[in-house]
UniProtKB/TrEMBL annotation:
Gene3D superfamilies from the UniProt entry: Nucleoside Triphosphate Pyrophosphohydrolase (3.90.79.10)
Classification lineage: Bacteria, Bacillati, Actinomycetota, Actinomycetes, Kitasatosporales
Signal peptide: none
Alphabetical list of InterPro entries matching this protein: NUDIX_hydrolase-like_dom_sf, NUDIX_hydrolase_CS, NUDIX_hydrolase_dom
Cofactor(s) demanded: Mg(2+)
Pfam family of the protein (one): NUDIX
Species of the source: Streptomyces poonensis
GO molecular function: hydrolase activity
Record keywords: Hydrolase
Domain of life: Bacteria
Protein name (Swiss-Prot/TrEMBL): Nudix hydrolase domain-containing protein
Domain Nudix hydrolase residues, every copy: 6-127
Keyword Protein transport tagged: no
Length: 127
């Protein structure tokens, strides 16, 4: 198959706090090549032979230290886009409302902080 028909598989996870509906985001380091200083939700590329839900659970453990069974993730959407670098990306978006553990920044070299945001008013966020 030619590269023109290949897409990189990503997962995106919205971790929603049941008590107030806020969604967990991570702020990238200001020197990051990807979204410097901006808030993003958890996620990343799939590993070889990994399903979308397995990858989503792994990414949450790696980035914010929580545990969630893949079957606890609610599939929301599939997105197909072109990344800034010109790569084609297929991203599966999941929602999680329950998990084990307290989220914390497991990747301080990549993220500066965790921020719970209101999903209906994201414009009010400062850089």
């Amino acid at each position: 198959m030619s590269d023109v028909h290949r897409s990189i598989a990503h997962v995106i996870v919205l971790l929603q706090r049941p008590s107030d509906g806020r969604v967990l985001t991570v702020r990238h380091q200001p020197h990051s090549w990807h979204s410097p200083g901006l808030l993003t939700v958890g996620g990343g590329k799939l590993e070889a032979c990994e399903s979308f839900d397995e990858g989503a659970a792994r990414e949450l453990a790696e980035e914010v230290g929580i545990r969630i069974a893949p079957d606890q993730l609610e599939f929301c959407q599939l997105a197909h886009l072109h990344a800034a670098e010109g790569e084609r990306v297929v991203g599966a978006v999941f929602l999680a409302r329950s998990w084990r553990g307290e989220p914390y920044n497991r990747e301080p070299g990549i993220h500066t902080e965790l921020v719970w945001v209101c999903p209906v008013c994201p414009r009010t966020l400062d850089r």
